[in-house]
Amino acid sequence: MISRVQCVSHGVPFELQADDAEVLARMLERVPFGTSHELAGAGGHVFYLESFGGSGFGLTGADEPITSANLDDALDRFGESLMVHVANFAPDRVFVHAGVVGWRGRAIVLPGPSFAGKTTLTAELVRCGATYYSDEYAVVDESGLVHPYARELQMREPGRPEQRGVPVSSLNGVAGSQPLAVRQIFFAEYQPAGAWSPLAVSPGMAVLEMLRHTIPVQRTPARVMATLTRMVADAQAFRSARGDARRTAEEILAALP
């Protein structure tokens, strides 16, 4: 018997299905932050995770069918596919791969790909007193404001790819709840011996750089460009290598009034 639940995430309806209720429960653990579970009427795209009777798992509903011998791997790939789907079809949000913190009523945004050190630097900014907004996505509305995506921080041990969820409270921090205008954008590249020496980046170049880290740039490029342009309108952007995350966080915040 197929178990199912209808959901809405950032304005995008979808349905989850599995041939095992426990598998469905684990699918729900991987939905995007802020997803609500609807009892009826949500509709939308269907993601179905099926067991092959001990020989693996198959997922339909992703851009391409996914098969895996391992349930954890299948669930991880499902979560990635669902996140891309939500980001692509959110009607009034643009998702930029970035860490985000709030500082004195404005947002600091740290764009970058996976393994770029976004979460580490975000965590240190929070330890230094900034308000936590996200370690994964800057969720930007059509006026250029950044909204919270305050899931648990996904921290990695040095030299290991595995992640573990870390509540912001364990960093003696708090999560933001209100959208913020962007104050500064830092393209910070971790280098073991890197020295923090930020150089100004023009608004146009900042938009072009963020396009590399943005969903859904391929699906709605004009809307994404307009949203990012509004996002950077009153912001300053900088680029620098960085070394130690704690020292970098202290230098970033010390430079702000």
Report what the structure shows:
With 257 residues, this protein is an alpha+beta fold. The chain has two domains: 3-89, no CATH class; 93-254, 3-Layer(aba) Sandwich (Rossmann fold), CATH 3.40.50. The protein has helices spanning 21-28, 71-89, 118-127, 203-211, 221-232, 245-254; strands at 3-9, 12-18, 36-38, 45-51, 57-60, 66-68, 93-103, 106-111, 131-134, 137-141, 146-147, 153-156, 163-166, 182-190, 199-201, 214-215, 236-242. Strands 7, 8, 9, 10, 11, 14, 15, 16 and 17 form a nine-stranded mixed beta sheet that branches. Strands 3-1-2-4-5-6 form a six-stranded mixed beta sheet, with helices on one face. The protein has a two-stranded antiparallel ribbon with strand order 12-13. Strand 4 and strand 5 (57-60) form a beta hairpin. The protein is globular. The model has no long low-confidence stretch (mean pLDDT 92).
Q: What is the strand and helix layout of this fold?
A:
Layout: E1 3-9, E2 12-18, H1 21-28, E3 36-38, E4 45-51, E5 57-60, E6 66-68, H2 71-89, E7 93-103, E8 106-111, H3 118-127, E9 131-134, E10 137-141, E11 146-147, E12 153-156, E13 163-166, E14 182-190, E15 199-201, H4 203-211, E16 214-215, H5 221-232, E17 236-242, H6 245-254
Parallel strand pairs: 2-4, 8-14, 14-17
Antiparallel strand pairs: 1-2, 1-3, 4-5, 5-6, 7-8, 7-9, 7-10, 7-16, 10-11, 12-13, 15-17
Helix pairs in contact: 3-6, 4-5
